Fold this sequence. Notes:
Layout lengths: L20 H16 L10 H13 L6 E5 L8 H13 L29 E3 L6 H9 L4 E3 L27 E7 L7 H14 L2 E6 L5 H21 L4 H9 L2 H16 L3 H9 L9 E11 L3 E10 L9
Parallel strand pairs: 1-2, 1-4, 2-3, 4-5
Antiparallel strand pairs: 5-7, 6-7
Amino acid sequence: xxxxxxxxxxxxxxxxxxxxxxxxxxxxxxxxxxxxxxxxxxxxxxxxxxxxxxxxxxxxxxxxxxxxxxxxxxxxxxxxxxxxxxxxxxxxxxxxxxxxxxxxxxxxxxxxxxxxxxxxxxxxxxxxxxxxxxxxxxxxxxxxxxxxxxxxxxxxxxxxxxxxxxxxxxxxxxxxxxxxxxxxxxxxxxxxxxxxxxxxxxxxxxxxxxxxxxxxxxxxxxxxxxxxxxxxxxxxxxxxxxxxxxxxxxxxxxxxxxxxxxxxxxxxxxxxxxxxxxxxxxxxxxxxxxxxxxxxxxxxxxxxxxxxxxxxxxxxxxx
Length: 319
């Protein structure tokens, strides 16, 4: 669906330094819940599982060529869930020829392949959340983190060298993940990050749960009452979360307000492609950039995605 308004880079409340840390952390916890929540009938799967499906479908047999690096991981967000589901799919030989596994609004299909190796995920951020990342890494041998600050606009090429990665034996290609993150960057910073991505990585995915469309705004409006319904089941042990959801409903208000602003900030795939093409002659050479959307919640909740893949002589063919 085409965007209904131009892109506006307005401010989000949860980005502001004056927002108390205890509110910011709980809003982020709700965002992670929105990635992982599965409502039967309305959702065929959680949005996090949908990401694994999209990566499978678009990357096909290349899926295990990469080390997946989250460059704006925050406290971990949905990335540990991406890792668990993607590796579960790989381990169960779930890569299929596309039968019964098509994506809404997209025609890509996954080519049949032998069972690939499991893949590694790495958490990074300009402000590392080491204690939270340590917990995620303990829960899976394929989750890793870099404990120092990593600037997505100037990422060191040797940042993975200290990690014990699955791909170490045959080398690794970096695939950058931006989950509910790329819309936060104003255009000059977004161009710098994209330029560094094209220069130092072999692939990237920009994943957003919102868009500049009327259905997206309606979906975000419903997040407020949704949080009122589900908070007792997921955050009942946290009295502060309960207080600031029901007695002083700051958390649902921030989620809805920031959701509207996130929608206005979100770039389309075409806009990301134009940004890549504007970086100068040769910057996007050998890169293939695809984009699309898929429903995560019936009938109006759509995930928009942009995936870039660098083609080289050693790469397997894309689907």
